[in-house]
Prior knowledge:
This protein has 137 residues and is α+β, with helices and mostly antiparallel strands. It has two helices and six strands. Strand 2 and strand 3 (57-62) form a beta hairpin. The model has no long low-confidence stretch (mean pLDDT 83).
Amino acid sequence: xxxxxxxxxxxxxxxxxxxxxxxxxxxxxxxxxxxxxxxxxxxxxxxxxxxxxxxxxxxxxxxxxxxxxxxxxxxxxxxxxxxxxxxxxxxxxxxxxxxxxxxxxxxxxxxxxxxxxxxxxxxxxxxxxxxxxxxxx
Length: 137
């Protein structure tokens, strides 16, 4: 027979998990993967790392030799995860962080995500939340 305390702990954990899943629209999850940006007018794609992800956009770190990108610049971003899964989406550069020897960080806002891309991103975010909850135990 299960102890009442165990059931209460499980109930609280499930409620916490459900609340976190509901808040994915406005929260960012730390991620690691490759980010490839294609910018109109720049001959070569810019390759860097995806560092955080939300339904609204992605944070990327580009190497120190990357071209400076201004806010509002149109981009196509391809995100490739370590498991080989990938998604491509239209985006705009929202901001650029300071540039140093490591490179520069950029925030990109997704544009016009269709249902398939939105579902793909949500699936990836949910898997990050699940991984985090499992590693907390």
